[in-house]
Write a structure and sequence with these properties.
heterodimer, A: 260 residues, alpha/beta, Rossmann fold, six-stranded mixed sheet, four-stranded antiparallel sheet, 38% helix, globular, B: 358 residues, mainly alpha, two-stranded antiparallel sheet, 4 strands, 2% strand
Chain lengths: 260, 358
């Protein structure tokens, strides 16, 4: 596998996030380099998902600086993050239940569609052309994820593993430069995990997307990630290569506890 | 056997994305259009046009409008009748105050006026959802009706706010008979239904449905919630507004603000619940059910009573009618909570296999 890890594209400095009196994240700094797979791990409630929500603008941290592609941003709405090329999947699948697989993945391309609702209503040239162009791109994603057979099925009827895959497809359809994956393998059996790992590595390799990944399966994390950041109770307790993190005292304490 | 897409291979995305991808559907819709445009005008009686077909089409349009808002964009509204009132009064005022404005233009302007009012009353949807939003749209219902009664300017100073619709003249041709009005209403409804279908199958509709199904995920994907919700309110109110204008100009002839009551809003809501939330076809089926069933019971009940020799008075019959109507609504909701459109879909899926069950 020939992978070129590039410069830092996302730099988070001293991020603190509070909900009322509850501190979700305290003074966290780390960076993400281009084309790498960056894992965020930590016990439940460590603030991993909050971290992703900060990156794509769902939560606004009270303190700290976020620099994405060399530009500092303070307050950003999720849809702006999307137009800048950040896509994500959710821990609890957040698909559009009433829509088919095809339509779900098509919504992933919505920021690239320009036709107005009047053009849609009248089915004028541009609206029609866009639908076809983007359908073609979406079919590429469908082929990549090997879900051709279910493209017209409403997502509500699909089993869990496939729903996870469709959600990845929806994120991929946006052709993101950065992909945030929140526990993409939770609740999967070994084969499904292997498939998902293969897709994540291929996305990283073929599309060159930078991946920020939250995962609990340590085997997976250690195998596929380039660098790992460890959170516990909203604080950063470790950061580095998988092997370094594995041997870090604080990390072992957080995961296994310590004898008194 | 009759309804099966086997052998109809799609070789392009254009073919797969067309309005009715299955050949039988295309044939069906063409036959339906031929019947409603060519056959019905020749055979239906005046009573049928003015008491059944025209109100059915107008309420279908209003239900379609509400379905865009509630069924597709997921914003519950109880103000549909008020937006119809805006449309009716706006069309009347455009005709009255602008000399020589073509009637169709004033219908469009009536729709746009209703859309504007709809956006205004849609603003709360940016902060509140579900039942709370429904209560907020109730405000629209009461406020608009109150406004039209309170300020005599809207009804050109007529007593108690009653307006009489002007003549329907298009390109110098007067649409006076019920049959002509039916054809006019039908044409408008067909065009607007087609436009609605196009919207909901394109990215506009996908944005609405995404907001309906999971708004956080929608915004993370890049859908801006505010414009998407307000667009749904605008388009929905446009449809209701045009329906209101047609209600005044093609159905009743003269209307008063109190005619567009909360009761009517609820009826439109029932239409989409019974017909199918989030379905264009459902709007028509629901309107047919809510409007036609009472008429059917009106005829069937006295006949059945006579047959059984039961000495029912007229009052009793009308009470029984309400009773049966309510019971049927409950029955349908229990049997198929997703409405008549879903029943139709299930029928189609069954037909694909019929007569071989496997």
């Amino acid at each position: 596998m020939s992978k070129k890890i590039g410069d830092v594209i996302l730099d988070l400095q001293n991020i603190s996030l509070r909900f009322g009196g509850v501190k979700a994240l305290t003074d966290i700094s780390f960076d993400v380099r281009e084309h790498e797979i960056r894992a965020i791990i930590g016990p439940n409630g460590a603030g991993k998902s909050s971290m992703l929500n900060v990156i794509n603008g769902v939560y606004h941290p009270q303190e700290g600086v976020i620099i994405f592609h060399g530009r500092e941003r303070r307050k950003m709405e999720p849809h702006q993050a999307a137009t800048q090329g950040i896509a994500r999947t959710f821990q609890n699948i957040a698909l559009f239940k009433g829509m088919s697989v095809l339509d779900n993945i098509m919504t992933g391309r919505i920021t690239r569609m320009k036709a107005s609702f009047i053009e849609h209503a009248l089915w004028l040239g541009r609206a029609k052309r866009e639908e076809l162009e983007h359908r073609k791109k979406v079919e590429e994603v469908i082929d990549f994820l090997e879900i051709q057979h279910i493209r017209k099925t409403p997502v509500g009827r699909l089993p869990y593993g496939l729903q996870k895959r469709v959600e990845l497809g929806r994120a991929l359809a946006a052709e993101p430069s950065m992909l945030l994956l929140d526990e993409p393998m939770a609740g999967m059996n070994v084969e499904e995990k292997q498939d998902m790992c293969r897709f994540i590595l291929d996305v990283n390799d073929q599309f060159g997307a930078t991946i920020v990944l939250i995962e609990h399966d340590m085997g997976v994390v250690m195998d596929i990630s380039d660098r790992v950041v460890v959170l516990d109770y909203g604080k950063k307790i470790g950061d580095g290569l998988p092997d370094d993190v594995k041997n870090n005292e604080d990390v072992i304490t957080a995961y296994l506890g310590v004898s008194h | 056997m009759l309804y099966r897409e086997a052998g109809q291979f799609k070789t392009s995305y254009a073919a797969d994305q067309q309005l009715f991808p299955i050949r039988q559907d295309r044939m069906g819709i063409l036959i339906l259009l031929a019947v409603v445009f060519l056959v019905i005008p020749g055979v239906a009686s005046e009573y049928w046009f003015s008491a059944i077909l025209i109100p059915f089409l107008i309420f279908s349009l209003a239900a379609l409008g509400l379905n865009i808002l509630t069924g597709y964009a997921g914003q519950l509204s109880l103000g549909s009748a008020a937006f119809m009132a805006v449309g009716a009064y706006a069309a009347y005022n455009f005709q009255l105050r602008i000399d020589g404005i073509p009637i169709l233009v004033s219908f469009v302007c009536a729709g746009l006026t209703a859309a504007g009012v709809g956006i205004l009353f849609g603003l709360p949807s940016l902060w509140i959802k579900g039942f709370y939003l429904a209560v907020a749209t109730l405000a629209a219902q009461f406020f608009i009706v109150w406004c039209l009664t309170k300020f005599p300017w809207f009804s050109n100073h007529s007593s108690s706010g009653v307006i009489s619709a002007q003549q329907l003249i298009i390109f110098g041709y007067e649409f006076a008979s019920p049959q002509e009005k039916y054809l006019l209403v039908l044409s408008i409804v067909v065009v607007m239904a087609l436009a609605a279908k196009n919207m909901v199958r394109s990215s506009t509709g996908r944005a609405w449905m995404a907001v309906r199904d999971m708004d956080v995920a929608a915004s993370v994907i890049g859908i801006r919630l505010m414009p998407t919700k307000l667009l749904a309110f605008a388009v929905s109110s446009f449809y209701c507004g045009v329906a209101g204008a047609l209600y005044a100009f093609c159905y009743l002839g003269s209307v008063e603000p109190d005619g567009f009551s909360l009761d009517m809003s609820f009826r439109i809501l029932f239409m989409i619940i019974i017909g199918g939330v989030g379905s264009i076809l459902g709007s028509f089926l629901g309107a047919a059910f809510i409007l036609l069933l009472p008429i059917f019971l009106d005829i069937a009940l006295p006949w059945a009573a006579g047959l059984l020799g039961l000495p029912f008075s007229n009052a009793t019959v009308s009470h029984i009618q309400v009773l049966i109507f309510g019971a049927l609504i409950m029955f349908f909701l229990i049997v198929e909570p997703h409405g008549l459109a879903r029943l139709w879909q299930i029928t189609k899926e069954k037909l694909r296999l019929w007569p071989f069950p496997h």
